[in-house]
What does this fold into?
Amino acid sequence: MSTKLNIQAWCSVKNGTVSCNGKKIVSTDNEQTFSEFAKQIYKEQQWEYPKFYKMDRLSKLTFMTAEILLNEVTISSEEKEQLAVVFSNKSASLDTDRNYQNSINSIENFYPSPAVFVYTLPNIGMGEVCIRHKIQGENAFFVFDDFNPLFLKQYAESLAQNNKATQVLCGWTEIDEKGYKSFLYLASPNGTLPHTEETITKLYTQS
It folds into this structure.
């Protein structure tokens, strides 16, 4: 029997602001760099995951959003076996690709940076989330020109209808030279908001 999904929780991280389930929980000086902002959130939330500091910017953004969101819900180890992850963005890992290319072009380095090369795929941040929370379900990362709520809805519900997932962590996580925004939500039978294109769009827009 397939699982009916509703939206249980959501979180947004955008240019110095963190909102969760419609409530602003962090608001900082927009003049901060992303790295300064990420470091502040890490310390304020008192996370104990030193690997965070080694991540690229996209992975940090994805990790932060998922960490705050998943700390708002209770998901058992058994449920995590059926928790799928579906993320998306516009520029894939371009932000990190540029940094890697700069390390190649630098006359000060004989070799490009392997520490940066590790993150030259957009799904690496998703993998960091899965490792951190021991998520074992299916996962996929898609690239679109813009936020695509209809696709997220249809893909998540397809996973549920085909008994490949009972809950799905969905969303958008994008960072470039102009700014950053990550919006993730948990589609679950425990949710109270309808899992519709309209609702997803509304939450994304208001976050």
User: Anything to note?
Assistant: The mean pLDDT is 92. The two ends are 34 Å apart (CA to CA).
